[in-house]
Amino acid sequence: MKKFFGLFFISILVLCVNLQIASAAATPTPTFRYNLTWDIRNIYYYTDSAAQSNYGTPISNASHNWCYTGYGNSLYPATRTTNQSNAAIDFHTYSKADGNNAKTELRIFGSTTPQIANDNDWDWGRIMINDYEIGNDSSYIQGVVAHEMGHVFGLDHNDTNPNSIMCSAWAGRAVNTVQKVDNDAFNLKHP
What we know:
- By secondary structure, the protein is of the alpha/beta class.
- The chain has a single domain, classed as Collagenase (Catalytic Domain).
- It has 5 helices and 5 strands.
- A 5-stranded mixed beta sheet has the order 2-1-3-5-4.
- Helix 2 crosses helix 4.
- The longest helix has 25 residues, at about 1-25.
- The N and C termini lie far apart (about 60 Å).
């Protein structure tokens, strides 16, 4: 009888854990109310000299990952340009003990202040990678960059799903590449 109750208890515990994992995996990635105005089929990114020197490979890998998720989307080509005015995303660096691996600003041409994603459309994004906080794990940096690129594309945080690139690192993001849940949100935003 004890063996039966022990097996019963373990079965219930395994079922609860599996339901919790399935629930997290099913949490859709939310999107911002407004949109990037740039043609998603013509995305280029610019890196200043410090960002290129320190993070060129993870930036390139994150960009490639957004284009080729394995789930299909309309993003193309997401390649580097040396002409900043042709870029929908600019990468820069800063160094400050502020608890952030990176920051994204959504910008309107001609404006000197960032936009709030749920107040207005934006024309381009500035991603600033924090040299002080980010560390040197290339795969992790790629995840941070892919996460920040998701914001420029109009995706919000998905902090209840650690299997989403849009889960914040501090909330326990367990992945460093774009997942199906993120790609699905991208496709809803950019049909």
